[in-house]
Amino acid sequence: MSDIITIVVAKYNYWLYIILMMIGLYAMIAKNNLVKKLVGMNIFQTAIILFYVSIGYKKDATIPIIENAHGGHGNTAHAIHAADYINPLPHVLMLTAIVVSVATLGVALALAVKIYQRYQTLEEDEIRMRLTENRLAENNK
Amino acid sequence: MKFAAFLIVSLCGGLLLYATADLPAWGDPNSPAGTHLSPHYIEKALEETDVPNLVTAVLADYRGYDTMFETAVVFCAGLACLLLLRDYTRKKGSFYRHIPTGVVIHFKENRKNPPKSREFEHMDKEWVPYDLIMKTVCRILIPFIQLYALYVVAHGDFSPGGGFQGGVIFGSSLILLAISYNLRTVMDRIKERVLGFLCVLGVLVYTGIGVLCMIPGGNFLDYSKLAVFLPVDPGHVRALGMLGVEIGVGIAVMAVMVVIYVNIASEGRHDEGL
Hints:
The complex is a heterodimer of chains A (141) and B (274).
Chain A: H1 2-10, H2 12-30, H3 34-55, H4 88-119, H5 124-140
Chain B: H1 2-19, H2 38-49, H3 54-62, H4 64-85, E1 94-98, E2 103-107, E3 120-123, H5 132-154, H6 163-180, H7 183-189, H8 192-214, H9 237-265
Antiparallel strand pairs in B: 1-2, 1-3
Helix pairs in contact in B: 2-3, 3-4, 3-9, 4-8, 4-9, 5-6, 6-7, 6-9, 8-9
């Protein structure tokens, strides 16, 4: 039992992100409303973004911007140690991922607007009902 | 359905939680992610690119292709929104408010040239915002937001920032204008054609700089070859190339944000909306 507690305390960040991610996944699977599904998708994406950023973190390190890069304030150039700066790569990946997630959310909302215009509803079961009604009407013709 | 979803989610989450035992501890400097490539970026980027902000250096130089296609993805998303939703039929009728008296006039037919004067203001049909405080505050705030966005783009090499962030801030200032006034005000100030042109221009600036590097015989997006065109210290050319690329990204992201918002808010009619 104490083992589990030490693991959880040492890695509580991953636990939180996984819980967040599962909340998003649950919303995507179980919710009936399309907009709620999109909210779930965004929570999922946010969990992944947080996960990546936390992977890049190093203890006692600062943001990945070199200090006194061009010898400002009379300091001479000094050696740069990798341990002093957090890993820039996850930040780069997530920077683009955030913008792309906004863009994909935009496309998803556009599709939702189109679905609403055609079926007058965003509830999944009602859309399915309309679809079967339409099919029956086609067959009866 | 709900139960099945809960089962899948708990199974999946349980597996992931079990796997965290193998992940490196929080803040471990010797984690796998921080040992192979990232020390090279941190220690050599300043020397190789002359850009102190490592995120920008990796984004625009080491991973230039990735960012270029990321911009293309954003552009495609804007295009998809436009193609899905754009609706050229116009709604019938329009409302105008006489500002000094507050009397509202209803035109039942569409006029080709709606009356434009300081005394009359166009109104949305369904939702009619008229809040002096909100409008005034936003009018004061928006120029500063836009200035800040330009600062974020221009200082992306030296401080936190860059094309994506600056573009989103600039786009959100235009969205704020649309929310506080109305959609038509934005569409009068920045025409749909201009927005589309800016979307394309941003991606073109990026790829154009890449092609420009090929003219003196370099590789695609090899900014050091731009020294032929820019009369600056050759060590600093890469930083300037990155700045150009970031400006392209900023323009594209700004225009796409506004296109997505405008199309979704008005269901593609571009006349009135949220």
